[in-house]
Design goal:
This protein has a six-stranded antiparallel β-sheet. The chain has seven helices and six strands; from the N terminus they run E-E-H-E-E-E-E-H-H-H-H-H-H. Helices cover 33% and strands 29% of the residues. By secondary structure, it is of the alpha+beta class.
Length: 207
């Protein structure tokens, strides 16, 4: 499965009123001065596919500041195995002021679409999964901070499983041949797994 992002169109997204960024479907470098919107483009991709922003904040605020009512949209055109795939997320934002207390409450409603067919978030994820796009893997492989967000043993093992699930015939011993820690290399060559070495290390520290 090959996924290429061809364009990202933003409307009323954070500080951008309307902008369409054209990409070539391969690696790309977006340049600009501070505050020109480089991070906002990355935020938009994360917002649609992973419901987070570049700082890994879930369901991030995207409405322009001091706008009491608007509709935000991000539309991403992709090629999935050379077939056009258009995904979008639209969000309605509205503020309401209590006449007595003066307190302002805000409501947001979001909907998603794939090739102009609307979905709720759950079915959006299911439909992309059916098309071969694993959004969890998408997050880990497109956001460097995702690899360090969960430093627990379970989190590290999850990352390891994701990475090794993408390749074939690569084993701990192959990795050992590329590292410069003699003791670790010897243990791996003796048949110990990474998990066993980690356990031995912790046991040694406790002693």
């Amino acid at each position: 499965m090959k996924l290429q992002i061809k364009s990202i169109e933003l409307k009323n997204f954070k500080g951008i009123q309307h902008k369409k960024v054209e990409l070539d479907g391969t690696n790309v470098k977006i340049c600009g001065v501070n505050g020109s919107g480089k991070t906002t483009v990355f935020d938009a991709v994360m917002y649609v596919f992973c419901n987070c922003n570049s700082r890994m904040v879930s369901n991030p605020p995207v409405t322009p500041v001091e706008v009491p009512e608007c509709q935000t949209s991000v539309e991403i055109e992709c090629l999935l195995d050379d077939k056009l795939l258009k995904v979008a997320r639209n969000q309605k934002y509205k503020e309401k002021k209590d006449p007595d207390s003066g307190k302002i409450t805000a409501t947001t409603t979001s909907n998603y679409s794939i090739n102009d067919v609307e979905y709720n978030q759950t079915n959006f994820i299911k439909e992309l999964t059916n098309r071969g796009i694993d959004l969890e893997n998408f997050l880990y492989l497109s956001h460097p901070d995702a690899f360090t967000a969960d430093v627990s043993a379970k989190g590290r093992e999850k990352i390891r499983a994701i990475l090794f699930g993408m390749i074939e015939n690569i084993f701990d011993a192959d990795i050992a041949n590329q590292i410069e820690v003699p003791e670790l290399k010897v243990l791996l060559e003796q048949g110990y797994s990474i998990q066993e070495i980690d356990s031995m290390s912790k046991s040694g520290l406790r002693k």
